[in-house]
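Morning run. Coffee first, then this:
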Amino acid sequence: MKKMILVMAAVALIAFNGNAQGSSNDLRNQITFGIKAGANYSNVYDSQNQDFYADPKFGFAGGIFVGIPLGSFLGIQPELLYSQKGFKATGTLLGGPYSLTRTTNYLDVPILLALKPIGLITILVGPQYSYLLSQKDVYDNSIMTVEQVQTFKNDNIRKNTFGILGGVDINLSNLVIGARVGWDITNNNGDGTSTTPRYKNVYYQATLGYRF
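And here it is:
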């Protein structure tokens, strides 16, 4: 993931230099369609388990977006993204220490209000619906390492969550560099009976996209 971020930064620098030397294409009044890919740096918050300590982890993020203008300075930007979130955690179980790496694969659908003060910058904020596709756990203690993919049949896991997303897009002609931060509003389990500690996702996202 670190290599991906370095590549994104290098491509952005080349594009910025090229854009500074030539004319800038202002696409604020045009309907645009684009693709993008990058990385999430995710963690969890609002845990009710005192023996549960989480650290962030990297995951993939990518998908498609549409820019719909409502004038030169305002618009709507819906997106459809495959987004990996999760965390690394340590805790105690039956008196013994353990570590857990959880990767949650979501289908994220943000509907963002786009504020476009200039052609170079788009400020984005709005709600996001997330659907949990799958969950992979790697559990490790002093005795064994277990890898498990959840089927959600025997645990009270919430598959539908809502959140808030905000960030900035830098528009270098057709190239788009995105930086976002997102928070879940609803927690991961429904009525609290799940054996999984209650938490909400929080993540930072960096992507590189292209508008057609």
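The beta strands are 32-45, 53-55, 57-69, 74-93, 96-118, 121-141, 145-150, 160-172, 175-184, 200-211. Good start to the day.
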